[in-house]
Amino acid sequence: MKAEILCVGTEILLGDIVNTNAQFLAKELADLGICIYYQTVVGDNPDRLKEALKIAFSRADLVITTGGLGPTKDDLTKEVCAEFFNQKLEVNEESMNYIKEYFKSQNKNMVKSNEKQACFPKDSIILKNDCGTAPGCIIKDDNNTVMLFPGPPREMIHMFKNYAKPYLQKYQKDIFESKTLRICGIGESSVEDQIQDLIEGQTNPTIAPYAKNSEVTLRITARASSKKEAKDLIEPLKNEIYSRLAPFVYGEDDTCLEFEVAKMIINKNLTISTAESCTGGLIASKLINYPGISSVFNEGMVTYTNESKMKRLGVKKETLEKYGAVSEQTATEMAMGVAKNTKSNIGISVTGIAGPGGGSEQKPVGLVYIGICINGVTKVKQLNLKGDRNRIRNITAITALNFLRLECLNI
To answer: Which domains does the chain have, with CATH numbers?
Structure first.
């Protein structure tokens, strides 16, 4: 089956909202083994919507729409789709009763315009909306199928997972299983270079690389007649990738770097404290996202000024005068100081220039030093980053956590 996602809404075209619906649907359809080659956005215009449907069905068997199911005059997706399939709309009593009860439960009056949300082609399949007033539906003929969903993501996601996905699964002939490997500390081009032969020789399973936020993911997908058979196909390829890319693979599937680092620290029974300057507590914030980190996280300090570095961390005045606040020497003393003063096994420090101002020819914007002190042994990593302030801060925090992960592997 080939599908196309057709999102309806002038607000999407104008950039007023981010089209997260298409992202969600694309991933869900891919997991079902449904091929997606095109995504389209069209405004609230019946002629253009009809043309978009015509084009979509020229290259897909299934079209999934979001938006345009509301009560207002410019909500015309259902009306246009019904016309496209030469079907007339009529009131669905079950949907009408649900909408009336919904308004009653909210202590609100139902207005006349809401009645159009209960109108559907006679032979369509109604998709209940448990989160709002606009039911979706499935309209089909001998060759084509369109599935209509409301625009609000909360409503659309619930409707798809609970009603549309089971419907689509009935038509699956094969099972698709995926495993995502999460990689940090090595760039996408280097990852691809090391597994190029695997990518070029892929058939089943397949490998899909993707880079985002200083990380790389490899999505391995297998097609088989059963879940077990698909997993068995994935396992040898996964193990081969691990053998080539270790220790850069830090986790699998829905995990994240800070969770893996936090679990590692807890499992190794190590305590940790942080001392941050340019990241302003971002590293500490990421670590405490993990439930249970309180058992090992002692203290997080934001030491922006030289005075705070000296007073809170014991950085020597001579070090600051001779080398400056942004230096390997200062990062070293910050990491040692925060570990010592908080009686922690691990002290991690960051000092740098996030910009946009404050840099010089000798120390440009993007120069960052990360210090890690583990049981008295200190190491420092220098970064020379490009980008705006937020990018520099975020990459620094991710790099610091991965630096810590790699140093803790052999403890």
So the answer is: 2-169 (3.40.980.10), 175-252 (3.30.70.2860), 257-408 (3.90.950.20)
